[in-house]
Design goal:
The structure is a single chain. α2 packs parallel to α11 and α4 crosses α5. The chain is of the alpha/beta class. It is elongated. α4 links the parallel β4 and β5. The chain starts with a strand and ends in a 21-residue tail after the last helix. Strands 1, 10, 11, 12, 13, 14, 15 and 16 form an 8-stranded mixed beta sheet that branches. It has an 8-stranded parallel beta barrel with strand order 2-3-4-5-6-7-8-9, surrounded by 5 helices. It is built from 11 helices and 16 strands. It has 2 domains: about 220 residues, Alpha-Beta Barrel (TIM Barrel); about 110 residues, Elongation Factor Tu (Ef-tu), domain 3 (Beta Barrel), CATH 2.40.30.
Length: about 375
């Protein structure tokens, strides 16, 4: 049987390591959970581990979070859109914004719901994703500064998400200067400069500092340990939080090179890419996970002698060499995943997702031994923002 396993001990390790390094910066952070696709047990486990602030980009996920852990602070990461204004105000404590019309509508809806909706103003700093241009910032802020129902909690930016630009200190320092400019001009303290993502972590773990940033939004490295600068894994983090067990439906010794002419691959096929000497043979297994379920090219067998040879919509082909573990039909092969494969698997309705150990056992074992306490980050009206 196929299943995705969330290794809670590995997740707890990564959470503690990331929290330690961000705390050393004097910063706070929110756990980005969008790749979990609303998986209730993992969200509950994060709360047990001490997480109090979660960020997500899907309203259905936020509904699940509200049902499972209503006390958690919720950030809405996707740009708010007109058709979802009511749900955003109802489900999220804070959203990231770059359109005046949207902010006004959020304010109107917040007033209707008798709430204050917190926002971060997003600024374009070179990643070419969402954000207003810096030259329009003061006018933009002036337009929304006193919008009923809205409280501006800070400035934010996306760095390294689309254009692939690596963070640099000058770029980040600009964001801090823009915040200081607005605070001086309008005599209003803001809480956040929120620009940190997984791409900042390699530098932070190597002793780098970004004083202008006081809030990070971290997801991918927490679950996969990914180093987005050099590739591979950040040494302090584990890459076995997410594991896929896929069942073997066929296993046979076969030629490793095709004797047929190579044509155009059918839709949803990942063509065979490995190169072998003509006539070379080896054990080849077919497991019952394919491109309909996930990005097959993002699967990596845990056993180093194994390799993914390719796949179709329904199956993945695994070269197993000499089959050192003597696997047979009905056994499973375990894979680590890339981020794209992780997203596909968690969004796939056909594959069960489980936490290990089970949640009841994990809660019992961890009781009184929390390693982190990631607090809610949005300040109350009485908080001193000068600190």
């Amino acid at each position: 049987m196929n299943k995705v396993i969330i290794n809670l001990e590995a997740l707890r390790h990564n959470l503690a390591q990331i929290d330690r390094i961000i705390t050393l910066q004097g910063a706070s952070w929110s756990v980005v959970t969008k790749a979990l696709c609303g998986h209730a047990d993992t969200i509950e486990a994060l709360k047990i581990m001490g997480v109090r602030s979660i960020a997500d980009s899907r309203l259905d996920n936020l509904r699940t979070i509200n049902e499972v852990t209503p006390e958690l602070e919720k950030w809405y990461l996707r740009l708010p859109h007109m058709s979802a204004i009511r749900d955003i105000v109802q489900l999220a404590d804070l959203s990231l914004n770059s359109e005046i019309r949207i902010i006004r509508e959020l304010g109107k809806e917040a007033v209707r719901q008798k709430k204050i909706h917190n926002i971060i103003i997003m600024i374009e700093l070179g990643d070419l994703r969402e954000g207003i241009t810096p030259g329009t910032l003061t006018e933009f802020y002036k337009e929304i500064f006193q919008t009923p129902g809205i409280k501006v909690q800070g400035l934010g930016a996306q760095i390294g998400c689309l254009a692939g630009a690596t963070p640099n200190e000058d770029q980040v320092a600009q964001l801090g200067l823009y915040r200081e400019l607005l605070e001086l001009k309008y005599h209003h303290k803001m809480k956040f400069t929120s620009a940190g993502s997984t791409i900042f972590l390699p530098s932070l773990f190597e002793g780098g500092r970004y004083p202008a940033i006081n809030h990070y939004r971290i997801g991918e490295a927490l679950f996969l340990g990914t180093n987005l600068i050099s590739g591979g894994r950040i040494p302090s983090l584990r890459n076995d939080v997410v594991l896929l067990e896929a069942e073997i439906a066929e296993i046979k010794e076969k030629n490793l090179t095709t004797t047929s002419a190579v044509g155009i691959s059918a839709p949803f096929e990942s063509p065979l890419t490995e190169q072998h000497e003509p006539g070379k043979r080896g054990h080849r297994a077919l497991v019952t996970v394919g491109n309909l379920d996930t990005d097959v090219s993002g699967l990596k067998p845990v056993v180093e002698e194994y390799s993914v040879a390719g796949g179709s919509s329904d199956i993945t082909v695994v070269n197993m060499g000499t089959n050192p573990n003597n696997l047979t039909v009905g056994d499973t092969i375990t894979f680590k995943t890339s981020y794209s494969a992780f997203l596909g698997l968690m969004n796939d309705p056909y594959i069960p997702k489980v936490v290990n150990p089970p949640l009841s056992e994990f809660r019992k074992n961890l009781l009184g031994k929390w390693e982190v306490e990631i607090p809610r980050t949005i300040p109350s009206e009485n908080d001193d923002l000068s600190k």
